[in-house]
Amino acid sequence: MSRFKLFIPVIVFVAFAVMLWRGLYLDPRTLPSVLIDKPLPEFSLQTVELGDRVVGKADLPDEPFLLNIWGSYCLPCLQENPILMAAAEENLVPIVGVNYKDKLNLAQLWLDDNGSPFEFSILDESGRLGIDLGVYGAPETFVVDGNGVIRYKHIGVIDYETWEDEIMPAIAAVKAESAK
Amino acid sequence: MIKPLFGVRAASLSLLILFSLTLGLQGFSMSAHAAVDTFEFATDEQQHRFRTMSDEFRCPMCQNTSLTGSNGGVAEDLRREIYLMIMDGKTDQEIEQFMYERYGDFVFYKPRLKLTTILLWFGPLLFFLVGGWLILGIVRRAKPQEREQVVLNEDEQERLRNLLDTVKDRD
């Protein structure tokens, strides 16, 4: 037992070293979201597609869906668009857009040019909804469950790997839970 | 506070000029602050609170810049939000809570005292204390055993004297 005691400093040191070593590889740009497991904020805004119609929380899908923050000025959004398009075409998951701090005509042009994976895109020209969502720049993507609770957040572009390794598992977990 | 870049200053100055022209204000004092000064406050105290707070919140997008110094879209929006909340009569605590609920500890240059920050800030002290306690224990346990008093008899004293003499002679 006293032999074991001798090794305690080494064990503490190794544990610390491993922790700090891992810390070196964390991305300081991905802030942990405080909104995980919180309900989506209330809003009533127009959309890119639906003309004068004002939408709110009640208009969101009542099954798990993705909420994707995008803008026509945002190059990474263009980069992830094909993946979202493919997901929408294969009916993997409904995707709702938030057109964040953009202009309506530019947003419409962008969707015409690149195709729209969105059921509809909420028009957040002022960025006020973005603030309530803790958004700090497009693209950001939320996985929301059927009750409108945020379950996962991905910051930055979704590439094929992130889709496979992060987004799909997060959706699957939420779906499995709601199936219970 | 980080000095705004020239571009920011120029942009804010032109905004100021535009602002004062549209409102028909005369003698609007121009200072070298970032876009901050385009807001109109009812009292100096409100303006002071606004400045303090936008200095103390960190911009979530341009990291290591305060809301005051940042020209990022989010920073602009958050400054506007703080302004509106101040004019709405919200207290500093309420505004802090608003920011915390959306952006977490990250927005604070002075994070709140809670379990994780206590561990971070006072952890080293804990290590110091534990280390000191361990060293104290080791030192105490390694107390030197008391040596027996050596008593020489006459023969031995004679030999010792001779030895010392030979050493002396050698010099």
Quaternary organization:
heterodimer
Shape of chain B: rod-shaped
Amount of beta strand of chain B = under 5%
The CATH class of the largest domain in chain B, by name, is Mainly Alpha
Ends of chain B: how far apart?
Answer: 75 Å
SSE class of chain A:
alpha/beta
Tally of distinct domains of chain A: 1
What is the straight-line distance between the termini of chain A? 48 Å
User: How many beta-strand elements of chain A?
Assistant: 7
What CATH architecture of chain A do you see?
3-Layer(aba) Sandwich
Sketch the topology of chain B as an H/E string, one letter per element. Answer: HHHHHH
Radius of gyration of chain A: 20 Å
Tell me the fraction of residues in β-strands of chain A, as a range: 15-25%
User: What name is given to the CATH topology of chain A?
Assistant: Glutaredoxin
Helix percent of chain A reads 40-55%
Tally of separate helices of chain B: 6
Structure annotation, total helices of chain A:
5
CATH class of chain A: Alpha Beta
The CATH homologous superfamily of the largest domain in chain B is termed Cytochrome C biogenesis protein
Would you identify the regions of chain A where 5 or more consecutive residues have pLDDT less than 50? none
